[in-house]
Amino acid sequence: QFELVESGGGLVQPGGSQRLSCAASGATLDQWAIGWFRQAPGKEREGVSCISSSDGSTYYADSVKGRFTISRDNAKNTVYLQMSSLKLEDTAVYYCAAGFLCYSENVAPDYWGQGTQVTVSS
User: Which residues of the chain, if any, have pLDDT below 50?
Assistant: First the structure.
């Protein structure tokens, strides 16, 4: 069974950095487009970033462009989201999802992880 597990969330100060991991079991991630989404309290879930399966192309929402970096480690079957210069408004539950294609920073997800909380606060 294909499962995605996020980790790396926690409390970080504004301006700080955090790296999220999305580890897979039951399938090889390099065959899937992987997207990161987030949902802040009282807001809709939004796409943050996506990495394609075909050529590793990466896409970012305007709100995180230049601050977040998505990457793959195929040997570890893991996708990462490196977040830097974090802002209060980055506080959210972050989810990874696997799908067939990236649609800019989004992916039409076939599988979801359970989410990891990132809280940016001083």
Answer: none
